[in-house]
Amino acid sequence: MSAIQVILFKHDGKLRCQGEVIDVSANQLVITTDDASASAISRDCWINVFCYPGEMHELYHEVMDLIGPEVKDMNFKLGEAKIIPVYDQLITVIEQLKDNKTMMMKFVFIYCLSVDNAYFSGVLRYFLAHNDKVLSFLESNFMKPWSVSQFAEELEMEVRKLNFFFYKNYGVSAKQWILERRLSFARQQLLLTTRKVADIALDSGFSNHAHFTDAFKKRYSCSPTELRSTIA
């Protein structure tokens, strides 16, 4: 399985998963496989989002303090659809976060861990165990001002294979992931430190200040200086 799928049923609907059709009542959250599909009276009846292994890896570190001890004798089956109830207030929050996938997944999994800690701890451990040295290398080196081809060379793999790895683990190209990771790191530095913008740009892997500012404005709809001014 290349990803998990989170489906929020706001109204009654059906889930088609592994050849079976499951009736799902309103106000239910379903964690299932990436090939499962939802149906209902209209498309507005549900929200779904895909979370790739690399994103699960990041999520694990975000919520690791909530993860329970590993249960050795637990009959863990990742492929099964897990259905848990949600309340109107939770649905409202999830809908508000749907345009921010990272925050939405963090909120959903914190809730899921509170409902069934053993199962969802197992889900996160599964994806953590199935990440390899490529992901660890990229997480440690994304701030270096390398091109995608340079990353591929360091990993002794073809650019095509590196891009396939990213599409499988993150659903985006290597270039997109590296840019997003650099911008996210730079944003944290802008908000949490008083370092010069030019220094942050270089330490985040950008070749020059102008390139950084342009990419940052496209991603966050404001310049680095404007973002920092909001906390002054």
Q: Would you kindly provide a written description of the structure presented here, covering whatever features stand out?
A:
This protein is of the alpha+beta class and 232 residues long. The chain has 2 domains: 4-129, Jelly Rolls (Sandwich); 133-229, Homeodomain-like (Arc Repressor Mutant, subunit A), CATH 1.10.10.60. Strand 2 and strand 3 form a beta hairpin. It has helices at residues 53-63, 88-97, 101-115, 117-129, 133-141, 148-154, 159-169, 174-192, 197-203, 209-220, 224-229, and strands at residues 4-9, 13-17, 20-24, 28-33, 37-40, 46-51, 82-85. The mean pLDDT is 87. The strands form 2 sheets. It has a 4-stranded antiparallel sheet. A 3-stranded antiparallel sheet has the order 3-2-5, with no helix packed on it.
Which key features would you list for this structure?
232 residues; Jelly Rolls; Arc Repressor Mutant, subunit A; 3-stranded antiparallel beta sheet
Structural class: alpha+beta
Largest sheet: 4 strands, antiparallel
Give the CATH architecture of the largest domain: Sandwich
Which CATH first-tier class of the largest domain would you pick? Mainly Beta
Tell me the overall shape. globular
Q: Looking across the biggest beta sheet, what order are the strands in? A: 6-1-4-7
Summarize the structure.
By secondary structure, this protein is α+β, with helices and mostly antiparallel strands.
